[in-house]
Every structure is written in structure tokens, then in C-alpha cells.
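Bench log. Compound arrived from synthesis this morning; before running ITC I wanted a structural hypothesis for how DLL sits in the protein. Inputs:
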Amino acid sequence: MEIWNSHFECMERNGLKHIQTERLRETVERVYFNVPYYRNKMQQAGLGPESIQSIDDLAKLPFTTKTDLRDNYPFSLFAVPMSEIVRIHASSGTTGKPTVVGYTRNDISTWSEVMARTLTSAGANRHDFIQIAYGYGLFTGGLGLHYGGEKIGASVIPISGGNTTRQIQLMRDFGSTVLACTPSYALFLAEAIAESGIKREELRLKVGVFGAEPWTENMRREIEDKLKIKALDIYGLSEVIGPGVASECLSQSGLHINEDHFYPEIIDPETLKVLPPGLTGELVFTTITKEGLPLIRYRTRDLTSLNYEKCKCGRTLVRMNKCLGRSDDMLIIRGVNLFPSQVETVLLEMSGITPHYLLIVDRINNLDTLELKVEVEEAFFMDKISQLEAVRQKLQNNLENSIGLSIKVTFVEPKGIVRSEGKAVRVVDKRKF
Ligand code: DLL
């Protein structure tokens, strides 16, 4: 099987460590001198750029979190002048404010490189037709895959998400060989293809690169059975670069992390101590080549473990296991990140409605559904049905505008939501991953 950049992907680990050290030192220097936030934090910890001599010194540095990105909204963590930024993406934050990320021209080139690795490790090359059904726009999925696809010389089909009938028609007519979308959409498409009457022999699909949300080995089997393809897991997050952080090769035994660009650590989310290889904990990344938005010890909240053994495919890059879940309350619904606190913010802005609510997540016909049950105030509950309905509609619209997801809203009578004695239960997730 082809390897896009065997120099880096199959490098002997001592050589790799040497490069990581060099790159980390440069990054620390860059953030110290260009980003006041990092300089202050390092000074408070009694550290200067000279304190970091090797990758082994990394643990001395403080962590960065999504809250830090929010507090520096929108651009204050950027390490270059805005004139150097050629692209901006964003994803949901814990409040109404999105998490904003910026790329220099070199960052876009790094991103294309790691995406070229991702696609090549899925067996794709210039002869392939890549149907990109991840969303294009502020979300990093569409454009991330797009640049990687062009870099390997494949024929890229930038169809974006949704419009299932057209997805299936073009998949057949153009002869798509690679499908890129969320795993839940892949399953939805599989069923829609079965119902469409199109025969499998009419399609040339051979592999899928699926990610942006958690999925299990069972889901993999179901997708592979129904679509008769290899289903590979790809992982990434906007803050670090987008997709392209880690991806499975055809041996399907863990996701290779592009650690010559993104240095991983696993920490205990309670004690914040670094855990030895093999143990499960929270994944933390330090970007060591990024220019626009370098991140030092960024807490992803994703739970996994690392495997440093050489892979059957020949790559020496460390592998992360499938993400087991998160150490915070973020939900991923149809690929959109959602924090319950975002819903709460919208509720608090409307009169007549209480902040007592329950979010019910389910998966019907392989598509995520979201329902919000919320209590209305006593006085308000006595109002006319038509008035209640108007407020319900307004709430539904406000939620859609601020979160970007359609949510079915149901009002319940005062005290209709069960009160918890301990931590409030805000979410019931009925999806079987
Ligand atoms: O989801 C980037 C991406 C796009 C990855 C397309 C893969 C394919 P965000 O919107 O910032 O970025 O969401 C990042 O999604 O912290 C994980 O919790 C979750 N996530 C992403 N990929 C996987 C995966 C993109 N393969 C957040 N398995 C991350 C489990 C994943 N969770």
C-alpha cells in the first residue's frame, strides 16, 4: 500500500523525537513572543522559552482549554498579524460564542499534507473520485478533505452534506470510489441506496473515511456490510487543524497521529498528570508546526489511549484508539457540536420559560434527532393554546438560529421535569453507538 510521506510517516522514533523537540522549541518561542496570553501564563509559572529544551519538558507548560479560546475571542490567540491569515473556520463553543481558528498559507499547506496522508492511507490516489459529503463552510470537514483530495490528484466532488437523492445519483453517475462523511450519514445513505433500487454493481464505491463524531465497531460492521466498502475512522478537531490529526490505515488497528505536526499526550482528567503509554485518559495536543493558531497542551476532552508499536502498514506514527467518549458534556448531533449550556443560554433569554429542561437525543433511521422538553412558568401555562404555540415556535427558531440544529420543542407543565437530587440530568442520549 502506498504511503504519502514515508520519510515522516515511517521515521525511526528517535529521529522523530529529535524533530519534535526542535519544532516544540520553535513553537514555544513563537507563542512567548507573539501571544500575550501565553507569555503571561508562562511568566506566572516562572517559565521562559529557555525552560523548554526538549519534548520531555513539555509537561512543565500549562494547559490550554476551550475556555481560553473563548476568553480570547475572536483572534487574540493568533500568533501572526491578520494580514498573514488566509482562512478562518469556527466550531461551537460552550456558550453562544464559536471557537475561532485561523490558518496562514503554510498552515493550509500543512493541512493539505496531513489530509493527503489520510486519503493515501485509505488507499486513495489520483485515479479516485472522492465524494465529499461533509459540510462545506465554517465547519472544517468539507474544505479539509477537499484540499487533501486535490493534493493527491484525485477527482474531488464537493457535493457537501445533505440532499440524499442527489448524493446517490452522482455517486452512480460519476463513479465515486471514496465517500467522505460522518458515519451516521454513511448509514443513512446506505439505507437510502437500498431503497432507491440502485444495485450495488452500479456503484464503484470502495472505501469511506468517516469521522467528526464517535462511532463503534458495530457501526463499522453495519456500514461495511450495507455499503460493501472498507470503513475507516478519521479524527480531528478544528482547534488543532480540523480533520487530518489522526486516521486509520487499511489495517484498521488504531488511528495514526500525525505527530510530526501534532504532539499527543494522555492525561488523567482529574489529576492532570501525564499517564504512561497504554492507559486511557484525556487526549492533549501541542501543535508544533502551526503558525496562525499554535496551541500548547490543548485539552481535547476526548478519551482514548496511545499505542507506540509499529503498525503492520509500516508506519511508525503512534496510534490512538477509537475515542471512547468525552470528559465533558459536549454532544455531537449530526456532526454539529452542542453543549447543553448553549440551549440554556437561549432559554434564559426568553420570558415565560424556565431553565428546567431535558434534551432527548435519539437516532431514527440512522439520523440523529433532538427534542427539548422545557417547563413553562405557572402564569404562562394558563395562557391560550395559540399563544403558547407562538412562543414554542419562537423558541424553536431562536434555537435553530443560535445552534444551527433543528430541535423539536415540547412544553411541559410547571414541575413537569423531574428534579435531580445530585447533578441535574440535562441529557438523555438514547443512541446506541
Ligand atoms: O469534527 C473535524 C473533523 C471533520 C474530523 C471531519 C473528522 C472528519 P470539530 O467540529 O471541531 O472538528 O469537532 C471536534 O469531534 O473533539 C471529537 O469529540 C469529535 N470527533 C471528531 N472526529 C472523531 C472521531 C471536527 N473519528 C470533536 N471519533 C472532537 C470520535 C470524533 N469523535
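What the model suggests: The two ends are 30 Å apart (CA to CA). The CA atoms of residues 91 and 99 lie 5 Å apart.
ITC booked for Thursday regardless.
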